[in-house]
């Protein structure tokens, strides 16, 4: 038996893709190992989003080199966004790499591995596809808790935000057959999973039509509407079983529709939580980022969420500080946007210039690292304060919590999530894993709620 060690970096899409890779290679006789030293094949699924992400992977390769020295037959493959961005240059730059495979070439992995094994030649496939969605591949759930799982519903991104490398590493947007998504979700439910997250770089632009899909898919799907948009898909998945929680990520502010908000409102099992990355609170910077909305448009969307879903809806964001030419005043617009919305939490970064992006070609990366970092620390400080304030509002309230594990800090406590995506810990009880319990919040900090089962 050949053993595969697979490690993922970056976003949830990458972790989900690794499960597809594991499925493809398990059919070729590979078994998954968590012990890198005993593996015959190491695959690293990589991220290019910021310079630091790529540095981390290059550092990891240095460590793997030590293992390879003791085991020269070991095959090393680079998958994902860094593979796509650097292509065969990676083979020259990182001598220990044998295989470079971009995100749309995973079906080709058995052949790529064969080339290395039988011909002793390095192999590369970084061809992007307009159609590949891996819709007929049942992922092998890696490091699964048996309760929560990702389902990839679309691939690629057509948005071309000027700072972002993803459209180059993931290619054009394409949506997966809705019936294959429903089938996968039903399968997971029957195996005991109770929460799925529908994944895509831009889930709200999900669109599948009978017309643009091939005959085989058309026949399979005669009983569904001619065109399925994200709100339809969300409803189809929500209707599988009211005990199956549904989340989705990521939404682009320009695309999220009131229909989606109404599905959240009308289905108790569609979680009251939306990740709506703003990136900046200043309209000039947003234009330069090519986000296609301005501050007021974004704030209108937030108001819609609060009006339709309710004030309790969990809302989070992504922010970038120090984007090209950002002034102090424009940075303050981001701080004031945060004061206006009061997010439950945010993912925050300082701008990292990426080769080939519109921003790299057109604008000067002219904000010093020192200023970028100072601005970042200011938004982090504000977010921490807001997270704490939002969490304090939950004290003495009772939430329906899906129990998904044991607290990292103490084995005497269970952990789970509220519909609003808040992490909550509470004293452990037997046989509640994967079930819903009502938990009353007693205390909190900015990251965690502390409660007791009612
Ligand atoms: N598709 C999602 C969206 O539209 O918001 C998220 C995509 S990206 C994987 C996650 C986040 O990384 C982005 O929202 C952005 O805040 C951040 N990011 C992307 N490119 C970046 C860059 N060049 N420097 C710093 N942060 C970046
Ligand atoms: Fe990148 Fe923008 Fe696409 Fe998100 S929507 S992946 S930030 S280009
Ligand atoms: Fe990174 Fe690629 Fe995701 S660049 S964030 S792994 S789509």
Notes on the protein architecture:
By secondary structure, the chain is of the alpha/beta class. It has 4 domains: 2-125, Rossmann fold (3-Layer(aba) Sandwich), CATH 3.40.50; 144-271, Transcription Regulator spoIIAA, CATH 3.30.750; 276-286 and 302-393, Transcription Regulator spoIIAA (2-Layer Sandwich); 398-453, Beta Barrel (OB fold (Dihydrolipoamide Acetyltransferase, E2P)). 36% of the residues lie in helices and 22% in strands. The chain contains 15 helices and 21 strands. Strands 2-1-3-4-5-6 form a 6-stranded parallel β-sheet, with helices on both faces. Strands 17-18-19-21-20 form a 5-stranded mixed beta barrel. The structure holds S-adenosylmethionine, iron/sulfur cluster (SF4) and FE3-S4 cluster. Residues 157, 159-161, 164, 166-167, 201-202, 252 line the site of iron/sulfur cluster.
């Amino acid at each position: 038996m050949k053993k595969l060690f697979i490690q993922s970096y970056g976003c949830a899409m990458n972790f989900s893709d690794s499960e597809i890779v594991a499925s493809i290679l398990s059919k070729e006789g590979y078994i998954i190992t968590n012990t890198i030293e005993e593996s015959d094949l190491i695959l690293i699924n990589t991220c290019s989003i910021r310079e630091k992400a790529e540095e981390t992977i290059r550092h990891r390769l240095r460590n793997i080199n030590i293992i390879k020295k003791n085991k020269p037959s070991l095959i090393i493959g680079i998958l994902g966004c860094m593979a796509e961005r650097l292509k065969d240059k990676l083979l020259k730059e990182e001598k220990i790499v044998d295989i470079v495979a971009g995100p749309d070439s995973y079906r080709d992995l058995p052949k790529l591995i064969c080339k290395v094994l039988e011909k002793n030649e390095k192999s590369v496939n970084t061809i992007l596809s307009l159609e590949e969605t891996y819709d007929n591949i049942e992922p092998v759930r890696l490091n699964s808790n048996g309760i929560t799982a990702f389902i990839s519903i679309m691939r690629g991104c057509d948005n071309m935000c000027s700072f972002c490398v993803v459209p180059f590493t993931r290619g054009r947007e394409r949506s997966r057959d809705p019936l294959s998504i429903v089938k996968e979700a039903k399968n997971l439910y029957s195996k005991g999973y109770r929460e799925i997250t529908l994944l895509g770089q831009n889930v709200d632009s999900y669109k599948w039509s009978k017309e643009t899909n091939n005959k085989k898919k058309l026949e399979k799907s005669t009983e569904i509407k001619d065109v399925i948009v994200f709100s339809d898909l969300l409803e189809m998945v929500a209707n599988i079983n009211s005990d199956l929680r549904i989340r989705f990520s990521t939404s682009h502010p320009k695309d999220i529709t009131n229909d989606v908000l109404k599905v959240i409102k009308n289905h108790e099992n569609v979680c009251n939580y939306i990740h709506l990355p703003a990136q900046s609170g200043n309209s000039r910077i947003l234009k330069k980022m090519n986000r296609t909305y301005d501050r007021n448009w974004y704030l209108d969307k937030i108001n819609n969420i609060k009006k339709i879903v309710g004030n309790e809806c969990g809302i989070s964001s992504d922010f970038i500080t120090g984007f090209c030419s950002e002034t102090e005043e424009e940075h303050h617009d981001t701080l004031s946007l945060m004061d206006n919305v009061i997010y439950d939490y945010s993912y925050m970064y300082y701008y990292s210039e990426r080769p080939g992006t519109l921003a790299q070609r057109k604008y000067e990366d002219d904000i010093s690292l020192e200023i970028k970092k100072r601005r970042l620390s200011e938004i982090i400080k504000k977010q921490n304060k807001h997270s704490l304030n939002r969490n304090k509002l939950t004290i003495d309230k009772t939430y329906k919590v899906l129990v998904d594990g044991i607290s990292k800090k103490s084995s005497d406590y269970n952990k789970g999530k509220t519909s609003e995506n808040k992490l909550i810990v509470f004293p452990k009880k037997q046989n509640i894993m994967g079930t819903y319990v009502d938990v009353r919040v007693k205390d909190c900090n900015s990251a965690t709620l502390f409660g007791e089962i009612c």
